[in-house]
Amino acid sequence: MRAYFDKLLSSSQRQKTLPLIYPVLIALFAGAIFSLALAPYHYWWLAILSPALLYACLRGRSAKQAFGIGWAYGIGLWFVGAFWLYTSIHVYGDTSAFLSIVMILIMALVMGLFSAVQCFVYRRFFPETPLTFAPLWVLFEWAKTWVFTGFPWLFAGYAFTERYLDAYAPLFGVFGVSFVVIILACALVEILNRRLFWAIPSAILLLGAWGAAQLTFVEQKNQKPLTVSLIQGNIPQDLKWLTEYQVKTLLIYANLSKTEWGRDLIVWPESSIPMFQTDIEAFLEAMKVQAEKSGTAWVTGIPYWDLAESQTAGYPKYYNSIMASGDESDGLYKKQRLVPFGEYIPLSGWLSWVLPGLQNDPSMSGFTRGTDHQEPLNVKNHPLGSAICYEVAYPNLTRRNASQSDFLVTVSNDAWFTGTAGPLQHLQMVQMRAKENGRWFIRATNTGVTAFIDHNGHIVKKAPMDQEVVLRGELPAMQGVTPYMKLSDWPVLIFSVLLLLVGWRFRPRKVDVSFKSRR
């Protein structure tokens, strides 16, 4: 096996190497086009072309050169792929256009280091082969879910939500889909370099996706589906937290719900009640009485002030939460993953000048993180797993919340990103979580995208964005567990590590090709 890898290395050494500026520019372009593979564009083939170009650019490069090439790729990936942050920073954060762009560029420079380090490690320690490039890609995607609290966005697997390769999701999760995508991308480069044997594993992976699609892990319970109404209030973000607009916000949601009492479940989105429960006890009690009288469960997003915990801690403890009440329903879920600069400002005393428009926003007062392994909400005697906004981007967190649940709910407020690709990318992640866990997902949002998503990750119903809407549908309870729900990300992570150990063990004697004479 060492002889095989030595042959690969000598082959790459013999190739004529272009000046470094060319692969850097190609990598920058490759990263920039990646997000077009995701919602709302859905050019899925770019999710193969983009990493394929990066893989090709790294051929025969030193580890230091690979770091620069990978960084260029990461900068292009994050600057374009997460440019939807501009709306929240500039429009709602009251930051100048120039400084907003600079902040996004800084974010891209920082997040781009993931790709830079990934490419450095690849060329420094491992042979040039898809069997080392793909595992590293997956491990670095996984790292984005926890390093510095995580920013788990722009994964390759999301490009195939509702497409052929998503059949791997119930087995191995989004990282399993990403692994297959990157193998196919690298194999394309190898085949174009006349290593035609890579057509065989590519065909096997494609055939495996077909086989996985024939498997069934969950089934609908022999119970009547719940009738559900999702309420989209369309409250502008710049008005949402104003004191003088709070009563109007409650009236908008209450009026939209008037015709829905009597259905099994009514869901209001994240922070649709823009006040702490201690400030509107009479309103909450009136809603509970109305829900019980009409035989309806009511679920709403609300900022929750835990008085008992606050007294014990000696300071106020606020939570971004989902509350269930009404007929045969109760429970409270406290958000576990908080968004930096969205639900709290890190080092707020030092950074108050960066986002001046957010300093007086009650949502920025400093939410507390909810504990792990919370009980699901009880809705009409069904366990309802919860996720608030950004939490659905975390595969393992959603998996934990989905366990022991009949169906899932996520509430969100994407008004921060109105008119951008952000809300649609967010919805795509919800679809992947539904597929991974074999559960229906209902999604209630302030401005969109409000939707019903089935256990296969398909959108059954979707409300128009930026409108006041009541979206009605049915929610079946599911039973059974997917392999991903049982085993989490461990199978694909362990397999990736094993491949890297084999590649490192049988690596060529000098993997880090220096090219000093060409510098």
TrEMBL record:
In which pathway is this protein known to take part?
Protein modification; lipoprotein biosynthesis (N-acyl transfer)
Q: Does the keyword Transcription apply?
A: no
Any stretches that span the bilayer, and where are they? 20-37, 43-58, 70-92, 98-122, 134-155, 167-189, 196-217, 490-506
Location in or out of the cell: Cell membrane
CDD domains from the UniProt entry: ALP_N-acyl_transferase
- Membrane topology label: Multi-pass membrane protein
Q: What is its main location?
A: membrane
EC class of the enzyme, as a word:
transferase
The record's annotation in Pfam families points to: CN_hydrolase, LNT_N
Q: Which residues form the CN hydrolase domain?
A: 231-477
Q: What is its EC number?
A: 2.3.1.269
| UniProt cross-references to InterPro entries, sorted A to Z | Apolipo_AcylTrfase, C-N_Hydrolase, C-N_Hydrolase_sf, LNT_N
Keywords for this protein: Acyltransferase, Cell membrane, Membrane, Transferase, Transmembrane, Transmembrane helix
Q: Which family does it belong to?
A: Belongs to the CN hydrolase family. Apolipoprotein N-acyltransferase subfamily.
Its biological purpose is as follows: Catalyzes the phospholipid dependent N-acylation of the N-terminal cysteine of apolipoprotein, the last step in lipoprotein maturation.
The identity of this protein, by name, is Apolipoprotein N-acyltransferase
Q: Which organism is it from?
A: Acinetobacter pecorum
Q: Which gene encodes it?
A: lnt
